[in-house]
Amino acid sequence: MIRTIRLARPFAAALLTLALAACGTTVERLGVEETRDLSGAWNDTDSRLVSEEMIQDVLARPWVQEHTRVHGRAPAVIVGEVRNLSHEHINVHTFIADMERALINSGKVKFVASRAERGQLREERKDQELHAREDTRKPMGRELGADYMLQGTINTIIDVEGKTQVRYYQVDLALISLADNTKVWVGQKKIKKLVKNSRLRF
Amino acid sequence: MRRRALRPPLVRMLGVMAGCLLAAGCATWTQSFREIERHLAAERYAEALEALERQGDADREPLLYQLNKGMLLHMAGRYAASNDAFEQAKRLIEHYSALSLREQGAMFVINDAASAYAGEEHEHVLVHLYAALNYLALGDRTGARVEALQVDLRLREQAARGGSDYVESAFARYLAGMIYEDLGEWSDALIAYRKSYEAYQRYRERYGIGIPEPLKHDLLRLTQYLGLRDEQRRYQEAFGIAEWTDHAAWRRQGELVFILHNGLAPTKQEQVAAVLDPTSGHYYAIALPYYRPSPPAIRAARLEVNGIAVETEVYEDVQALAKRTLDLKMPAITARALARMVVKARIAKAAREQARRSNDNSLAGLLLSLTTEVATVVTERADTRSWATLPSNIQLARIALPPGSYDVRVELRGSGSVSLGAFDLHDVAIEAGRKTYVSRHVVAANP
Question: Does A124 reach chain B within 8 Å, measured CB to CB?
Answer without folding.
Answer: no
